[in-house]
Design brief:
The protein is mainly α. Helices cover about 45% and strands about 10% of the residues.
C-alpha cells in the first residue's frame, strides 16, 4: 500500500472556519498516526473572492493550533494548465462533450425544475449531438459524460457503504465557457498529482465525491479512500456558518482561548476514544482513528470550550501560561510593562483562580499593570465614613509591620472586624476597592501581598473627593 498522504484544501475567500480547522486536525492526526504526509492546498481559483490576507490567515491559524503541513503550500491556481489538459483528454477519449446551451436555456431548465419542485439536472441535450449542429455565436462549456445506467457504491470509511443511482448525477461542467476549470475537475487532478491516498472532508462533499470518482475511473487513475465527517452545528441544531459568532479561530484566540484547549475540544467534537476526555498531542496521534468518528452532526458548545480552557489554565506549567498571557496581551490588549512581568508571573497562582480565559487573567491583573487606580461611581458609593475609618486604621497597622504575609495580616483584619463591629466583607471590600478600583477581583490577602507594602500604603492614602 502507498504511504498515507492527506490534504486540507481551504479556499482563501474568508477567515478559516472552525469546521475547517477540525477537518484539518482529523487529516493531520490520521496522517501522523500512519507516519504519512499531510499537505495544505490553497484552492484559490475564485479570482474575485480569493485574497492573500485570507491565505496568510489560514496558514497562521493552522500554525497557532499546532497543525503544520509537510513541505510548502500547494497553490491550485498555479496548476490550471494541468486541469485544462485533463479536460481535453476527457473530451478526446469520449468521456466529455461540448455543450452549446445558452445561459437562457439553462435558466429555463432550472425554472421548470423549480416549478415542478424537483432538483435541477441538466437535460443532457448536447450529450450525443453532432458538433455540426453547434450554433456559431455560443462558446461551449465542456461537460463530463456521467454514467446513466446502474449504480455506484462509495465505501466510506466513516459513513459505511453509500449507494446512489448513476442517473441522479448530472453531466457536470468541467470547463466553463471562459476556459476555466471547475471545482470537481481541479480537485480530482490535484489529488491525483499530489498522490493523495485518503480524502477526509465534510459530508457536504458526498455528491462531489461521486462525481470525482467518475473522473478517476475515466482517467484510469487509482481511486483514493474517502471519509466524510459530519458537520458541526450550532446549539440550535443549524449548520454552523461563517456568519455565526465563534465560527473562526480568531473569535476564540481574541477572547483568550488557548490553542491546546481548543484543539482538545475539536478532537473530542464528534470523535471518541473510550471515555478519555483530555489528550496530550502524543496521545491524540497515538489513539486517533476513523472508526471513532460518529455519524451524526456535533453541536458546538461554548460552555464546554470554556470549561476545557479553564482545565488547561489550571494545569499548564506557569512559565508557559505566562508566555501565552504576554503574547495574548501584545496582540489583543496592550503589552505588559517589563517591570510588571515578574510580579504578574509570581501572582499567577491566584490570578488564574476561576479564570476561564486569558482575558479573565488579564482583567484580574489590571490592578498590578495599572499604577493609577480608577474607582467606578457605583463602588465609590460603598465607601462610607465607616469604610474610610477602617482603611485609615488598616494603613496605620500595616505601616508598623515589616513583612506583609497572611500570618501578619490576619490578626490585623480580625482586630478591625471586632473593633468596627463588622464582618470580613466589611473590611475586605473597601480595601479591595481602594487597591484595585473594583469590589470584584482576587482575594484581599493575595492583592496586598502582590502589591507590596509601599504600593498598598500609597493607594490607601489616596483620598476620594
Amino acid at each position: 500500500m502507498s504511504k498515507v498522504a492527506t490534504r486540507f484544501a481551504p479556499s482563501p475567500t474568508g477567515p478559516l472556519h472552525i469546521g475547517g480547522v477540525r477537518t484539518a486536525l482529523f487529516n493531520w492526526l490520521y496522517t501522523k498516526n500512519h507516519k504519512g504526509s499531510f499537505f495544505l492546498r490553497i484552492e484559490d481559483t475564485d479570482k474575485e473572492r480569493s485574497k492573500d490576507e485570507y491565505k496568510n490567515q489560514i496558514i497562521q491559524s493552522l500554525k497557532w493550533i499546532g497543525i503544520e503541513q509537510d513541505g510548502n503550500e500547494y497553490i491550485q491556481s498555479k496548476k490550471i494548465n494541468d486541469h485544462i489538459k485533463i479536460a481535453n483528454e476527457l473530451l478526446n477519449n469520449g468521456h466529455a462533450y461540448k455543450c452549446y446551451c445558452s445561459n437562457e436555456e439553462i435558466e429555463e431548465q432550472k425554472n421548470r425544475a423549480k416549478q415542478k419542485k424537483i432538483p435541477y439536472i441538466y437535460d443532457r441535450k448536447w450529450r450525443d449531438k453532432s458538433e455540426t449542429d453547434a450554433p456559431k455565436n455560443i462558446k461551449p462549456t465542456i461537460r463530463f459524460k456521467s454514467k446513466i445506467e446502474g449504480s455506484t457504491i462509495l465505501k466510506d470509511l466513516v459513513q459505511g457503504d453509500i449507494e446512489i443511482e448513476n442517473n441522479t448525477i448530472e453531466d457536470f461542467i468541467i470547463l466553463r465557457n471562459d476556459g476555466s476549470p471547475t471545482y470537481n475537475l481541479s480537485a480530482s487532478v490535484d489529488d491525483h498529482q499530489m498522490n493523495i491516498t485518503h480524502i477526509i472532508r465534510g459530508d457536504d462533499h458526498k455528491i462531489n465525491t461521486f462525481k470525482q470518482m467518475q473522473i478517476y475511473l475515466a482517467m484510469k487513475w487509482e481511486i483514493p479512500s474517502f471519509a466524510h465527517i459530519p458537520l458541526i452545528h450550532t446549539t440550535e441544531g443549524k449548520k454552523l456558518s461563517k456568519r455565526d459568532k465563534a465560527s473562526t479561530l480568531d473569535d476564540y484566540s481574541k477572547i483568550g482561548i488557548m490553542p491546546e484547549a481548543l484543539r482538545n475540544y475539536l478532537l473530542r467534537l464528534g470523535w471518541s476514544f473510550k471515555d478519555k476526555e483530555i489528550f496530550t498531542e502524543e496521545e491524540s496521534i497515538k489513539h486517533f482513528n476513523l472508526e471513532g468518528i460518529g455519524k451524526s452532526p456535533s453541536k458546538l458548545d461554548m460552555s464546554r470550550i470554556l470549561s476545557m480552557n479553564e482545565h488547561y489554565i489550571k494545569n499548564i506549567n506557569e512559565n508557559d501560561l505566562f508566555k501565552q498571557l504576554t503574547k495574548y496581551c501584545e496582540i489583543y490588549k496592550k503589552k505588559i510593562p517589563n517591570e510588571k512581568g515578574d510580579k504578574i508571573k509570581s501572582s499567577l497562582p491566584f490570578l488564574k483562580n476561576k479564570s476561564k480565559t486569558l482575558e479573565d487573567i488579564y482583567k484580574n491583573s489590571q490592578y498590578i499593570i495599572e499604577d493609577k487606580v480608577t474607582i467606578n461611581q457605583d463602588d465609590i458609593k460603598l465607601i462610607d465614613d465607616k469604610a474610610k475609618k477602617i482603611i485609615s486604621e488598616f494603613s496605620n497597622s500595616i505601616s508598623k509591620v515589616e513583612k506583609l504575609n497572611k500570618e501578619n495580616l490576619e490578626p490585623i483584619i480580625n482586630d478591625l472586624i471586632k473593633k468596627n463591629e463588622t464582618n470580613f466583607k466589611g473590611v475586605g471590600q473597601p480595601l479591595r476597592i481602594f487597591l484595585t478600583g473594583s469590589k470584584f477581583g482576587p482575594g484581599i490577602y493575595d492583592i496586598i501581598k502582590s502589591l507590596g507594602k509601599d504600593e498598598v500604603l500609597k493607594r490607601l492614602g489616596n483620598k476620594i473627593s
